[in-house]
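Hi everyone,

Forwarding the result from last night's run.
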Amino acid sequence: MRMMCYIDPGTGSILFAVLIGILGAIRYVIRIGIVKLKFMLGGGRVTDKNTEEIPFVIYSDNKRYWNVFEPICRELDKRGMKVVYMTQSPDDPALTNPYENIKGEFIGENNKAFVRLNFLEATMVLSSTPGLDVYQWKKSKGVKCYVHILHAAGEVVLYRMFGIDYYDALLLSGDYQVDEVRQLEKMRNLPEKECCVVGLPYMDEMVKKLKDSGPAEPHERTVLLAPSWGPSAIFSKFGGDIIGKLLDTGYHVIVRPHPQSFASETEMIDKIMKMYPESDQLEWNRDVDNFEVLKRSDILISDFSGVTFDFALVYDKPIIYADTEFDTAPYDAWWLKKEVWTLTALPRIGMKLTADKMDSLKEMIDTCIEDPKYEEGRRQVRSETWCHYEEGTKRTVDWLMAKYDQLAKESEQVVNK
């Protein structure tokens, strides 16, 4: 009789991590042996460097983060830094980027990508992906410094637990984020990471693009509904009824679900789209780049999606945020036992939508657009979470280049001892 063996995903992840650890240890021992052999054959000096080492790596787990890294790549290219951009998306724009010094490399998906990353030889790795050394993505002994950069305005503590614990350095956008990181480090007895407030390069880029594009064309009042995904998101809490209420306002309505909803919540999204098909008043938007849809919308309704701050702070327009009873339990914010910064910022830039206010959506929309207190609120929030306005790319690359030079000098000193 043939026996079948089932390994649940959690156990599979652990076994994969153990296997990677064993292989990594074996490779490390072999590498040390080779270095020692070269040392002896070279009369007490290592005569050449490890030719496998890559000076600078950018790692992205999805093509949608090219907008985060593109301005940084452009500036690194101008300064002559050789970069390998590793991505898990076979159609990532980075793979066909126009920059001479930026080489795109598709490293596969899932475990295939992690095998490449976990044995990496590089001076620096820059990434916006949380969870380093927590799940399958393990720190390689061949990498000297792992640097995390934000891909949204807001807390660094709204990643899943331990999301940034094992990075060596963090590039942040506000002083309050540094304070939160230091609190977590003390609570978990972790060494202090290098934290540098550099701003938000991708949002600076959006501002420049918005200025260059000129004013929006005249249009009827337009409402953009852009929920996140998961059990705490708008559609999970309110269902599709919110679309019906928006149509009752008489305003033009654009619905732009989170891309992950089409993969993880297919049944729910299909049901809502059938209930509310496209019409002259309603459109469903799935553009890869959200620039145009944000520009032509007058107000945004969302939950805890990162697009909330993009819309309010870059486009300088009001928002309505859904009361979805956000649960901090799975996130680093839970450890701080205080109200997260985002929840202090939202009331200053818009109004809260609760189930009992659904019939008042039109009045809420009009108030948010016309009341000047929300414009002042956006100015306050922008100053708190977006430091060094329009200087983010330069400050980011200045820090990266300085850190790289430091690491290169330290390596050279070790080799020449």
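Residues 9-41 form the longest helix (33 residues).

Cheers,
N.
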